[in-house]
Each structure stands twice: as C-alpha cells, then as structure tokens.
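Re: Re: token formats

Sure, here are both.
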Amino acid sequence: MERPVTAVQRSRRTAPDDLARPFLRVGVIGLGVGEHHAAAYLQHPRCRLVAVCDRSPEKRDAARSRFPEAAVAADAKELLTDPAIDLVSIASFDDDHYTMERMALEQGKHLFVEKPLCQSPDELRALHQAWKHHEGRVKLTSNLVLRAAPLYRWLKDQILSGRLGELYAFDAEYLYGRVHKITEGWRKDVDNYSAMQGGGVHMMDLLFWLTGQRPTTVTTLGNRIATRETAFRYNDYMAAMLKCPSGLIARITANFGCVHRHQHVLRIFGTKGTFIYDDAGARLHTSRDPAVPSTPVTLAALPASKGDLIPEFVDAVLKETDLTAETQSHFDVMSALIASDQSVASGGTREIEYL
C-alpha cells in the first residue's frame, strides 16, 4: 500500500481503547459507490476503516484527505490478502467482483459486495462452493439497497400479514434514466455487460424478498435501439417474464435507454389488494369500488444512503448471526438473472437452475 504504516498498526495506533472489545477492521475497494460504504463503516462504533483502494490516482488522492486514518492502495490484492483486514467491501467494476470475492473467501474475510455478485453460471457455482466451504462462519451479502427502503420494509409486512391476499402478479420496471453511464462510462467496456444484472437485479430481488417465492422459468427478450449508435454493445432494454410454483406471474424490465429520470415502478396484485409505486407515489388499493380512494403511503421508496444495509451486516458479523438463508437468497436471485440472460441468448424459455 502507498502508506508505510500497515493497516493493523494504524488501527492499533488510532484506537487503543478498542483492543479490549471486539471490533472489525474494514477495507473498501472502489471509491465510487464505495464512498458510501466507507462512510457507513466510519459511523459504526465497532468498525475501523483501515484501508481503501481505487485504480484512479485522483480518487486515491481524494481518499487521503477524506479518510486520513486509512491506508490507500492502488492494487486490490493488497487489501484482499492483508491478514489485518476482517471485512472487505467490494464496489469495483462488475467484471472484477468474482475474482476479488474468491480471493477474499480464500483468506476467510467477510464480504459486503455491490451487485451483481458475478456474471456467469460458472462463476456463480464456484463462488457458491467457496462460500459454502466456510459453513456459515464467513458472512457474505450483496448490497441490494431497496431492502433498506422504509416503503418496502412496510410492504413486506403487509404481504406477510395477508393484507394483499394471495399474490398473482408482480410487475416491476427499472428505469435507469442515465444513458451516458453506459455509453460513456466503464460499463461500455465490460464484456457481457447485462442490464438485467446491472439494474434489473433490484427488481428481481424485490420479487424474491417481498413475495418469498422462487420462480421456476424465465423468458426474456431484449433490444439495443436506444443506444445502437453508441459505443455500448449490449441490450439496453430487457423484459423478463417469470413463473412461480404458486402460479404468480412476474414481469421485470431493465430499461437503461429510457428518456426518464432515474426511478423504478412496482405494481403487486393480490386477491385482496393492489400496491402501486410510480411517479404519483405509493398507494394501496383495497376496493374495486371507484368511489373508494386508494390509501397513500408516504414512506420513502429509497434508502437514505447506499450504505444503509451495512450496519445490520456488521452487527451480524460481530454477533455471529446465521446469515445462511439471506446469503442463499442472493445466490438464488443471481441464478434467475443468469437464466434471464441465457434466455435472451437462446431465444427461448429457460428453467432456472438454483444452487
């Protein structure tokens, strides 16, 4: 690392009072979204941000000022193999995730990873095996931030309580609204970049997390009309139809080329009620009578920060909470995303192969 003081020396020098109680030494790789990660770790009383990493010299220079107590590295391997680091946040480019995760798991480090976990079925299988090898001792989670949104925590409770009745349709749209990020930014250079993995993942995760169901098949179509005259090489629009064992049908779209502000739309239909979130806000319909208005729901549909899930993860690591079911759910979501990409490539329906 560029600083001569090692991460463990730095943490001991800056926090000697904490040697008497457990705390986590954390490293963050990637200082785009990773800055939100770093801020969350700094706010947790039992974390020490001991190292950060980015390829960009400019971001490394900025990090020295923003995180003066952290070592700064240009090579992620230095954090991933440093025995002084207990937990690594990975917020690098999508095609780096798998290699970094494998290296961290080989070192027995806990992992908080930006989506997607990986890109291919082979990577997913290998990653799953590496995680299973630790038998729950090493914690791994993905930053699917809509799980932290007050609106969706409330909605999950409503679904579990039966207020919507039996669910039969799930309709979600991810409206990216920032086309320059795929035509000019790093995403255009990532081989096999997937709009469904890069953005639709949030909607796919809501399907699994809110409904508690695992779809069995997926049929997906895609096109590249909005960006066909640009350097972006892959589908900027993807639409997936998924079927669940209960009969519930889901439609999920990843719309990266849209002329629209960055937003998402969600409609969930049940036999007793309908939930809608769109430009008009969130509301709950509990009657077919046109004279009965819907009930507005004023809770936020986004978390306050992209680091909002980090405190819960840190607490789970410190308390040695069993996160097996949560981590497996992230692998399940990835299985559905990969099957969706395979469906586009093959032009037909794919069975989703869960690990």
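Second one below.
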Amino acid sequence: MNSSQSAIRPAEDMKVRNAEATKQKLLKAALAAFSTQGYEASSTRHIEAAAGVKRGLINYHFGSKRDLWEAAAEHMMAVTEQDLGAAMKNIAHVDATSRLRLFVRAYVVFCARHPELNRLMIQEGMHPDWRLEWLLERSVRLWYRRVCTVFEEAAALGVAPDMDAHHFYYSLTGAATLIFSNAAEAEALSGQNPLAATSVEAHADAVAKLFTSSGARI
C-alpha cells in the first residue's frame, strides 16, 4: 500500500463509523417514536430531529419510513432474541421444578431493560395490518410457543398456576411489563423509580411468586 492509499484508508474508516453511528441514532429515535406515538403519528422529520441528524438521512440510510420501521423492529427483535435466548439457555440446565420461576424472573429483568418492546407491541397489536404480521412472523409466534412450552412443563409438574398456557402468556406479559412501560406513572404513585436496580429485582421476585406460588413446590 502506497502513502496515498494509507492516507485514504483512515478517512474511509471514519466515514463508515460516522455512517453507522448515524444509523444507530436513527434506529434509537425511530423505536422511541414508533413505540410511543405509533407508526402513523411518527413523522420522519420528527425522528431525524430527535436523532439530532440532518433532514433527509432516513431516506439516505434506509430508503423510506416503512424501511426504517422494519429496521428498527428488526433491531429490537435481534436484541430480544440475544438476551432472552441466553436466558432460556441458562434455565434449560436447572431443576425442572425451578425453571418457571427463573424464567419469569429473567423475563421481568429483560422487560425493565427494554420497555420499548412492550410499548411497540401495544401499538401494533391493536390492528391486524402489515406491521403486526411482520412482528408475528419475525419473532412473536416463536416466542409465544416457547413461553407456552415452559408453562406446560411446569404445569405437568404441578408448579404452575391453575390456568392455560395462553392466559399465562398474557397474564405474565402484563405483570412483567406494565410497571416499566408506565414508569412515570409508577414513580409518581410510589415515589420510587421502577427502573432502579433494587426496584427491578423486587418486581422480578414479586411476579415470580405470583406465578409459582399456587401449587408450587419450589
């Protein structure tokens, strides 16, 4: 490599890093907007302003608002699969009678770290359109089946609450996520930050007890 090529390479690397940083800013701002305001109410101009980037960079990096939504949702689903996938692997090796409790705790902790996931699902779960179908096909149907399997295994051992797997899925989702999705309300009522580490642990314990106390031998 000659001297001119050596001089060009760092500049190209910096350009790539800057472009990736801009894309990450846009993804973060887009996920915040789509999960709190909904797709239709979220404008690309607002998202670019929230990301602190120049006008037109959504089209440059993603192509369209729809493409941006898919990229933001894909990012969220990838994070979910990585974190919850690791949690599922960890509980696969523990005693079967303890598995449901440990799963519930891990799920609550994840929901505290990523309240935007439940907010996004609330926004998109109200209407049967292309975004809901995208989420269902990408990850949600598989996650639903995995949660139901964990519950059914616990039910067979007599350490699960008296309900079916479908109602467990939605009961757990609500119990695990609402305090974090509505963090401002929860803090205003209690005077405690629900996203503080001690609060998250307390809520994880509370939800785990809620779903493993009835008939549980843990």
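Residues 214-218 have pLDDT under 50 and may be disordered. The two ends are 65 Å apart (CA to CA).
- S.
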